[in-house]
Design brief:
By secondary structure, the protein is of the alpha/beta class. The chain has helices spanning 2-9, 14-24, 30-41, 49-62, 76-84, 98-111, 130-135, 155-165, 195-210, and strands spanning 66-70, 90-95, 123-127, 143-148, 166-175, 214-219, 225-230. Helix content is 44%, strand content 19%. The protein has a seven-stranded mixed β-sheet with strand order 3-2-1-4-5-7-6, sandwiched between helices.
């Protein structure tokens, strides 16, 4: 009995688990590996390997024809999703920072999959504040998958439009919900300058879980992810 109890209380070290999973995951295409190294060398945050695995799984399962990304950065995640999505998939991605938006355009031209129909890459970058851009997208342009990876403190403001634009049966995948673990802590254990984003992220997670149109699963993957299915 004591032996069984000991086995139940032992859990694998999270860092060792991450290393093991990464080692067992086949490498992605060379152009994405190159872009990932370039972004990291420039200090630009991109989706972590565990989040890449999560996205790849749901892209393969869902086979979306339309994707909306909130937060382009230098375009790595948009190109990653395009690689694993069906050939006819169209992606709209939103970026506020002008310098990063320009770099993303260059990366799309360099690495994007060209459509034989119109000679375009299939990725449309909309530059500007996400709140304004989202508000201008018509509801009839529904999306099969929405990937949210922008300013974390603004997630709660993006949520109404994200749900509005998500088609029935569509997925909303939100990255970095744990904020390097700070969300798990009491607000009083968080540095004063991070308390606003801490409170907003907790409000966002609560809103996801209480939104009647969504069924949400919270995952510890990477820096935490939420997968929400629109009913």
């Amino acid at each position: 009995m004591s032996g069984d109890r000991d086995k139940r209380t032992i859990s694998p070290d999270p860092e060792r688990m991450e290393v093991f999973i990464e080692a067992m995951t086949p490498p992605g295409p060379v152009h994405l590996q190159d872009l990932e190294l370039e972004a990291l060398a420039a200090g630009v945050p991109i989706i972590r390997p565990q989040t890449q695995n999560l996205l790849r799984f749901f892209l393969t399962m869902k086979r979306p024809s339309r994707i909306l990304e909130i937060g382009t950065a230098v375009g790595f995640s948009a190109l990653f999703m395009q690689h694993y999505a069906p050939a006819e998939c169209r992606i709209i991605t939103i970026e506020k920072d002008r310098v990063r938006a320009q770099k993303a355009r260059e990366n799309f031209a360099r690495y994007g999959r060209i459509s034989t129909e119109d000679g375009q890459t299939g990725i449309t970058l909309m530059e500007g504040d996400a709140i304004e851009v989202l508000g201008g997208i018509r509801e009839d342009a529904s999306f099969d998958l929405v990937f949210m990876d922008a300013a974390k403190g603004q997630y709660i403001r993006f949520l109404p439009d994200a749900v509005r634009l998500l088609g029935s049966g569509g997925l909303l995948i939100t990255d970095n919900i744990l904020q390097e673990g700070e969300v798990l802590s009491s607000r009083f254990a968080v540095t004063r300058r991070n308390r606003t984003i801490h409170a907003r992220m907790r409000t966002y997670i609560r809103a996801l879980m209480e939104e009647e149109r969504l069924e949400t699963l919270l995952l510890p993957t990477g820096d935490g992810a939420a997968v929400s299915l629109k009913k």
